[in-house]
Amino acid sequence: MNVLVLTEDGEPSEQALTLARSWGGTVHSLRMDAITPFAPDAIATILQRAAGDLKPMAVFAAGTDRGNDVMARLAARTGLPFAANVVAAEPGDPVKVTRQRWGGSLLEDATLRGSPTLVTVAPYSVRITEGAAPAELDASRYVEQLDPRDMLVQVREHIDPPGGGVSLAEARVVVSGGRGVGSKEGFAIIEELAGLLGARVGCSRVVTSAGWRPHTDQVGQTGTKISPDLYIACGISGATQHMAGCKGAKKILAINADPEAPIMSLADYSVVGDLKEVVPAISAEIRKRQ
Amino acid sequence: MKILVCVKRVPFTGGKMVLAPDRKALETRHLGFTISPHEECGVEEAVRIIEAGSGESVVLTLGPAEAVEQLRDAMALGIDRAIHLQTDGSEWDGESTAAAIVDAIRSEEASGPFDLIFFGNESADACGFQVGIRVARELGRPCVTGLKGVKVEGPSIRCEQDTGAGRDVYVLPLPAVVTVKEGLNLPRYPSVPGRMRAARKPVVTSSPAGPEQNLGLVELSVPGGPGRQTKLLGSRPSAAPVVVEMLREIGVA
Question: What distance in Å separates the CA atoms of residue A218 and residue B154, rounded to the nearest whole number?
Answer without folding.
Answer: 33
